[in-house]
Amino acid sequence: MKILDFKKATELDKQNQTIQAALLCYYHYKTTDEQIFDMKGIQELFSDAGFNPINSSRVKKSLIEKKIMRIPKGLKTSLEFIPSVFQEYEQQYGILWNDNETINSESELIDESKFCGKRNYLTRLIQQINHSYANNCYDAVAVLMRRLFEIMLILSYQNLGIDDEIKDKSGSGYIMLDGIVKNAINNNTLKLSRIKTEFDSFRKVGNFSAHNITYTAGIKDIDDIKLNYRVMLEELYNKAGLMEKEDI
After folding, report:
1. Residue of 105, 180, 184 lying closest to 140 (CA atoms)
2. Which of 95, 129, 160 is the endpoint of a domain?
3. How far apart are the C-alpha atoms of 240 and 156, rounded to whole Å?
């Protein structure tokens, strides 16, 4: 993936310099496998991406204070990702490097003409959901639907500038989905419609498939929630500011 494509896919222009630095380091890791970064290299990444020079000391301090990166043992002038942040980036952006893998799907469960084409990783998730549904892999469908639901909630909080409300105590990651749902239901800034009363059912179906040893999902488990799930998706796509965005 070219750096300009990564900029577009992650909407890097809209991020502050701290997040830009973190995402550019993640891009560098994905293209080189290098996991240790220095500020000279980060400056070069900003230049390669077409950004203005940064204040290296300030950005480095911010990356550490926000618990995105840390100083590796024995390498005082370098930085490395905090593992939980790196895992979050892998979940959210790693899929961008899989674009050459074709997923055969035709809106079997979720309308791809409406919900795909906003962000690459969302498109890939929706295609996987539809493909799994078409091939009777209902546990996979349930888990992926839960994941998409969680991502859309987080993107909605981020778009409204209130994602600190669902951060963990360290401030470097997000709380568990059940905590996010509890906050969302009563959040006056998010202002959800009555569909919020169904949020726990989306979470539970995915949880059963992911964690219950003897449970296996069937088509009825998915069909029973698919209409409300579609309503939820449209509302959260709007809250996340995605419905009017051009295709990526």
Report:
1. 105
2. 95
3. 4
Q: How far apart are CA 181 and CA 154, in angstroms?
A: 10
Residues 84 and 119 in one domain: no
Model confidence over 106-154: pLDDT tens digits? Answer: 899 999 999 988 887 888 899 999 999 999 999 999 999 999 999 999 9
Same domain as 118, residue 83? no
Strand pairing report for 78-81 and 37-38: antiparallel
Instruction: For residue 59, give its domain range.
Output: 3-95
Model pTM? 0.65
Q: Cβ–Cβ contacts within 10 Å for residue 170, how many?
A: 11
* Residue 62 to residue 70: CA distance in whole angstroms: 11
Same domain, residue pair 123 and 215:
yes
pLDDT score of 244: 62
245 within a domain of the structure (yes/no)? no
159: nearest Cα among 243, 52, 70, 72:
243
The CA-atom distances, in angstroms, between 146 and each of 84, 189, 229 are 20, 23, 10
Residue 67 lies in a domain: yes
Judge contact between 113 and 119, C-beta under 8 A. no
Q: Which CATH number is 38's domain given?
A: 1.10.10.10
Distances (CA, A) of 196 to 41, 45, 129, 220, 227: 45, 42, 22, 21, 13
